[in-house]
Amino acid sequence: MSLAERKMQFLYALRSKGVTDKRVLTAMETIDRGPFVRGVFANRAYEDMPLPIACGQTISQPSIVGLMTQALNVQPRNKVLEIGTGSGYQAAILSQLARRVYTVDRHRRLVREAEDIFAQMGIGNIITFTADGSRGLEDHAPFDRILLTAAAEDAPGPLLAQLRVGGIMVLPVGQSDTVQTLIKVTRSETGFDYEELRGVRFVPLLEGLGDEE
Ligand code: SAH
């Protein structure tokens, strides 16, 4: 199959799995997943599969990236926080939809590699941080949207506190590696509304910085 055909099939897979928001589809058509997948799995970048990346982490399945982005309902003037930069793919998608994206990973190596790809792609509205993202980024709060791409047992308190009133947070929660639920939290004047979206499987949200290899 030619590259063009593989990219067509990639977009078809997204639509057939429920990614229907036009802005999200356009962003995923614009941002090539290829550069975010390195090494032996590079030739599988256009399959709707999670794939291994450095530091024992994974780049999420494209249809899940699409569904999470869609649930986040990002608006053009939004300031978005992503916890779990990983390959940088999700942040790059968000960069097409938001005014500015703050992305945090506990592995410095992943952050550096993602920065290189953002620069190559000419993306200028992503700000990267190597830190424990479960504490959020207090200096840059509040955020209109917050997305976690690693699973916590519950929505971390500091992140709830850094969500603007009217804001949306999407995250996988669960007590084990195998059973997790994607939830959408909306902050109102008086509190937080929770909605369960679907079952998912993500790597765990861990405390502190990652070991450097
Ligand atoms: N969004 C990524 C996939 C992320 S995989 C992509 O598009 O490729 C989950 C990531 O969360 C991993 O890179 C892991 O290092 C990171 N992570 C786990 N716990 C974290 C924490 N407390 N703070 C920041 N990043 C964390």
Automatic annotation (TrEMBL):
Family as reported in the entry's similarity comment: Belongs to the methyltransferase superfamily. L-isoaspartyl/D-aspartyl protein methyltransferase family.
GO cellular component: cytoplasm
Protein's UniProt name: Protein-L-isoaspartate O-methyltransferase
EC number: 2.1.1.77
Localization per record: Cytoplasm
Species this protein is from: Falsihalocynthiibacter arcticus
InterPro entries in alphabetical order: PCMT, SAM-dependent_MTases_sf
Annotated catalysed reactions: [protein]-L-isoaspartate + S-adenosyl-L-methionine = [protein]-L-isoaspartate alpha-methyl ester + S-adenosyl-L-homocysteine
